[in-house]
Specification:
The complex is a heterotrimer of chains A (500), B (99) and C (503). Chain A has 500 residues and is α+β, with helices and mostly antiparallel strands. Chain A has 17 helices and 15 strands. In chain B, helix 1 packs across helix 2. The chains are: A alpha+beta (500), B mainly alpha (99), C alpha/beta (503). Chain B: Its EC number is 6.3.5.-.
Chain lengths: 500, 99, 503
């Protein structure tokens, strides 16, 4: 595969305006599939989560999963869409070994939701509105494994194996209108948009939305038009973009690749391209000869879905706060800087920080614990932060620090004890004897002892060289085995040194 | 006057994955030409004011609860498979050798 | 026909219930009859290896005092379009030869649960595309009245099996007349219920919005007894109706003994008769209408102006839906595989479908693909769906005036094998009378009314009722049956020629 010629990004932007479009597929986390009662679970033995419907066996018929419809309506509402008064399924006809009936049940002219918009936030904090054309229900295909090629690729494979466990898993496909005016920020817009969809889906609790697992899949459409031209350029559709970072990289790559072709007077082929995460390039996909003619027609085995106004209003009333609005509210409430909030948000820690604050912690302490020590441990152990410790326990520790019972250093030991299952924060403090010595008598004795042992330092302090006190403080803290409030010790050192 | 040509028949056969022989293309071109001519009359009365009927008995909102039911075993699933391996259905290469 | 096989299902059921006959005896008698005559008739594609075993278990349960259903122990022939776990299901196609379904069609499961004994799978036009069974990949079925003639189609096997006394009852499917037209040409009874009255789950789909499973029998009562067992809501078929159906057998009994014809408003559809209809068919039809009038029925002619577009609409909708329904036969998960050396998956699929489908199936798939193609959809498929609306309106207007509509079930009696097999248009026109009911979803029945004088072959009367009023068909159908029997001095089927072993 010859390497694509790429134009310098800034040069490309000078000559061309990028126009984007996205098709995001969301796998719904229902218990069963879209049209069959087979379990919708990941990672089972091949071809075990199947019924005659999933395999397209002769005589089998689909029946709509009502929960999938509700989830789809909720998602439509969260995308600001109108919900169709009447919606119906259609067959999309194309042959492919992972498509068991050789037609996919999808929606065509009457999608469940249409005409909405999603507000996204770019890294610089600016907001943009992405126009949504439609969101429709459909079923997923099976999974192909390619044999005999290199690295499991379809190219060069001698045969392929099909597992239909995924066939029929409910999907919602969210399609944007063309997105204009992103200019040099196109890659960031792509990333932010897909991230926003992920956040919305997660906030609704309708999908695990794990891109690496294919719960959320993005096809990125990119076209360029020369500056001053009205007509849209030919677009490519890049598939297999399986992380937010890849969305950003793939959009950037396509802009540079297409610009190089167009600048030399070439033409862009309308095609499907594949993103290669490892090499960071896109490559031409199989040109689908049937792609121009899916022969859609209303699915005769299924009836129209006519959501009642009551159902739609009920689902609307149950919508959670929009993730972006919530984030902006929390950031203001907590008084975080952009950077601080991004730390929390990018780590997926908004919920736990919020819960910790609700349990009494200060925002700063909650942020510090979760983005710091707890995240480090979770990463090291390869687990979710919520599996490390509960927000309530973190709030307890923060409260003990706040009250002066613990220093930061001691608090880390308490955290360790709590994680190790030694009980509540207070129980760990008690059991390990970790509380700060707040008895001035004991501290004064230790200070006096240290001053007596280091007369030269004492002299320096008395000469006004206050920074020399550090050595005394260190000795006292050591003597107290760290269980003293360093600030109080410092006060006492200066006080006693002056008093002698 | 029908627009059924051998090229169109070949295209339709390709869309529907039927590897027609040349004689079949010839006979189908003429048969379909006649058939299409006789069925095109539906357009005479299918005016804009008539709604389309896709289901003979109008029903709506037929769905099932999201509850897991009986599934096939892997053995049952593969029992009619012309070829299989590792619990999966096997098909020959999806892309041709030249690609 | 004498002996056990000569009994109707109702008569046999009564003797089974009274302990005068065992299911094993009844099943054996029918298996013997199949062995004797099916070499000539070719109604069966497969005869069950388990029938006697099933019959024995029914006898044992009866002997143990178990309360069994009204048809328990009665043998049943099953059209090969319905999938069965204990017998292959091919839908008459080479591409499904030997296919064993891991599940039973709902109607088969209900029949088993009711104690019916599956005898075997009956022949049919490939994927139910045809009106003669000549499009079966496994050779045509022959009409028991004249072995050189077609038994109708697509369900010629089920009708012939019942007409030849190889089974008292059979299950069929009717997409454009596949139950009613074979009944017409074989002197038997066939019912296409209201769309959605009987589950389609496990019926290998031809055209989803037209297909309907129904009973095939020698009497109206027998059909009602079978419909009672198979009808009713099925959660595996979204188009299945939740209606609480009355007993069709009870309706048939009422019709046979009562005066349901007195005051009945009967409509003759102007467009379903006249030119193109065989003289003897017209004659028997007219005589029957006169008998209805004599029995007190008010007969009026009604107009259904859009019926002339029905065949055209049907031959767009059916191929369109069929082209999609039959896409699953790709040799990946089941069925025939033809894999030329070095073939890609796509080439394998194309080679398999070329080898596995017969000419009529290919014709309709290509036609349906054309009708759905971008650029043609609105003109063809879209227009056909509008014609469907117009035909429904014609029916609504007609049923505002009358209780039932009647017509000859088909324009001609059984035509000779080979006469139309290479003339698809002529074959398609054979369905002109039966297609409107499928397009509108309404129920229809064919009841034998006599033999056409010119060829001594059976003629049937089609009766149609509004959707959901299947019971009306059974009531009126049984009344017509009684009138005809009275006029003939016996059943029509008793005049069928003896076959093979019975000679």
């Amino acid at each position: 595969m010859a390497a694509d010629k790429l134009m310098d990004y800034d040069a490309a932007l000078e000559l061309f305006e990028p126009v984007l479009g996205f098709e995001v597929h969301v796998e719904l986390g229902t218990k069963t599939k879209m049209f069959s009662h087979a379990p919708n679970v990941f990672g089972s033995e091949p071809n075990t989560n199947v019924t005659p419907v999933c395999l397209g066996l002769p005589g089998s018929l689909p029946v709509v999963n009502e929960q999938a419809v509700r989830y789809s309506i909720s998602l439509g509402l969260a995308l600001g869409c109108q919900i169709a008064a009447s919606s119906r399924f259609a067959r999309k006809n194309y042959f492919y070994p992972d498509n068991p009936k050789n037609y996919q049940i999808s929606q065509y002219d009457e999608p469940i939701a249409f005409e909405g918009s999603v507000e996204i936030e770019l890294p610089d904090g600016s907001l943009r509105t992405i126009p949504i054309e439609r969101a429709h229900m459909e079923e997923d295909a099976g999974k192909l494994t390619h044999l005999g090629g290199s690295g499991g690729r379809i190219q060069g494979a001698s045969s392929s194996l099909v597992d239909y466990n995924r066939a029929g898993v409910p999907l919602v496909e969210i399609v944007t209108h063309p997105i204009f005016g992103t200019e040099a920020l196109a890659p960031e817009v792509g990333r932010a948009y897909v991230g926003a969809i992920r956040d919305i889906v997660l906030s609704l609790g309708i999908s695990e939305a794990k891109m690496e697992r294919g719960n959320l899949r993005c096809d990125a459409n990119v076209s360029l038009r020369p500056r001053g031209q009205e007509k849209l350029g030919t677009r490519t559709e890049t598939k297999n973009v399986n992380s937010l970072r890849s969305v950003e990289r793939a959009v950037r790559y396509e802009i540079q690749r297409q610009a190089a072709i167009l600048a030399e007077g070439g033409t862009i082929t309308q095609e499907t391209r594949h993103w290669h995460e490892d090499t960071g390039v896109t490559s031409s996909g199989r040109p689908k000869s049937d792609a121009d003619d899916y022969r859609y027609f209303p699915e005769p085995d299924l009836l129209p879905v006519v959501p009642s106004a009551e159902l739609v209003e009920q689902l609307r009333s149950e919508l959670p706060e929009q993730p972006l609005a919530r984030r902006r509210r929390l950031k203001a409430d907590w008084g975080f800087t952009d950077l601080e909030f991004q730390d929390v948000a990018n780590g997926g820690l908004v919920d736990v920080v919020e819960a910790t604050i609700a349990a009494g912690s200060s925002p700063a302490a909650a942020r510090k614990w979760w983005t710091g020590e707890i995240s480090r441990r979770a990463n090291a152990d390869g687990v979710e932060v919520t599996e490390v410790i509960q927000p309530e326990r973190v709030a307890e520790i923060a409260a003990l620090v706040e009250a002066g019972t613990l220093t930061d250093k001691l608090a880390r030991q308490v955290l360790e004890g709590v994680i190790a299952g030694e009980g509540t924060a207070q129980e760990v403090v008690d059991a390990r004897g970790l509380a700060v010595v707040s008895d001035d008598g004991a501290l004064i004795a230790a200070v006096d002892e240290a001053l007596a042992a280091q007369p030269d330092v004492l002299a320096k302090i008395r000469d006004g060289k206050v920074q020399a006190a550090g050595a005394i403080i260190g000795s006292v803290m050591k003597a107290m085995r760290g269980q003293a409030d360093a600030a109080r010790v410092r006060e006492l050192v200066l006080e006693r040194a002056a008093a002698e | 006057m029908s627009d059924i040509t051998p090229e169109l028949v070949r295209h339709l056969a390709s869309l529907s994955r039927i590897d027609l022989h040349d004689e079949e293309v010839t006979s189908l071109t003429s048969e379909l030409g006649q058939i299409v001519e006789s069925i095109a009359k539906v357009q005479e009365v299918a005016t804009d004011d008539v709604v389309a009927t896709s289901h003979p008995i109008p029903l709506q909102n037929v769905s099932r609860p999201d509850e897991v039911g009986e599934t096939l075993t892997q053995e049952q699933a593969l029992s009619n498979a012309p070829d299989s391996a590792d619990g999966r259905f096997r098909v020959p290469a999806i892309l041709g050798g030249e690609q | 026909m004498s002996g056990i096989v000569g009994l109707t299902a109702a008569q046999l059921a009564e003797r089974l219930g009274a302990g005068e006959v065992s299911s094993v005896e009844a099943t054996s008698a029918h298996l013997d009859r199949i062995a004797a005559v099916d070499g000539d008739v070719n109604a069966f594609l497969h005869v069950s290896d388990h029938a006697l075993e099933v019959a024995r278990s029914i006898d044992d349960r009866r002997a143990a005092g178990e309360e069994l259903g009204p048809l328990a122990g009665v043998p049943l022939a099953i059209k090969d379009v319905l999938v069965t776990t204990d017998m292959p299901s091919t839908s008459g196609s080479r591409i499904l030869e030997g296919y064993m379904s891991p599940y039973d069609a709902t109607v088969v499961a209900r029949s088993r649960a009711a104690g019916l004994v599956p005898l075997g799978k009956t022949n049919m036009d490939e994927f139910a595309m045809g009106s003669s069974t000549e499009h079966s990949a496994f050779g045509p079925t022959r009409n028991p009245w004249d072995l050189s003639r077609i038994p109708g189609g697509s369900g010629g096997g089920s009708a012939a099996a019942v007409a030849a006394f190889e089974a008292p009852l059979a299950l069929g499917s009717d997409t454009g007349g596949s139950i009613r037209q074979p009944a017409h040409v074989t002197g038997t009874v066939g019912v296409k219920p209201t769309y959605g009255a009987v589950s389609r789950y496990g019926s290998i789909a031809l055209a989803s919005s037209l297909d309907q499973v129904g009973p095939v029998s020698r009497t109206v009562l027998d059909a009602g007894l079978l419909q009672d067992i198979v009808q009713g809501h099925d959660r595996f078929d979204s188009t299945s109706l939740t209606t609480q159906w009355p007993s069709m057998a009870e309706a048939a009994r009422e019709g046979a003994r009562g005066d349901v014809l007195d005051g009945l408003r009967v409509g003759i559809v102007r467009q379903l008769g006249g030119e193109g209809f065989q003289a003897g068919v017209r004659q028997r039809f007219t005589e029957t209408v006169e008998m209805l009038q004599a029995a007190g029925a008010e007969v009026v002619e009604v107009d259904a102006p859009h019926f002339e577009y029905a065949v055209a609409a049907y031959y767009l909708i059916l191929p369109a839906e069929a082209s999609s329904n039959l896409a699953k036969f790709d040799s990946v998960r089941f069925g025939l595989r033809v894999e030329p050396a070095g073939a890609t998956s796509e080439q394998m699929m194309s080679a398999t479908r070329e080898a596995g489908f017969g000419p009529e199936v290919k014709r309709r798939i290509i036609l349906g693909t054309y009708a759905l193609s971008s650029g043609y959809y609105a003109a063809y498929y879209g227009s056909a769906q509008k014609v469907r609306t117009l035909i429904q309106r014609d029916f609504s207007a007609a049923f505002a005036q009358v209780d039932v509509l009647v017509s000859p079930t088909a324009p001609t009696t059984a035509f000779p094998l080979g006469e139309r097999v290479n003339d698809p248009l002529a074959m398609y026109l054979n369905d002109v009378t039966t297609i409107p009911a499928n397009l509108a979803g309404i129920p229809g029945i064919s009841v034998p009314i006599g033999l056409a004088p010119e060829d001594s072959l059976p003629v049937g009367l089609q009766i149609m009722a509004p959707a959901y009023r299947d019971d009306r068909l059974y009531r009126v159908g049984a009344a017509v049956e009684a009138l005809v029997e009275n006029a003939l001095g016996g059943t029509l089927i008793s005049r069928a020629p003896a076959l093979g072993g019975a000679r």
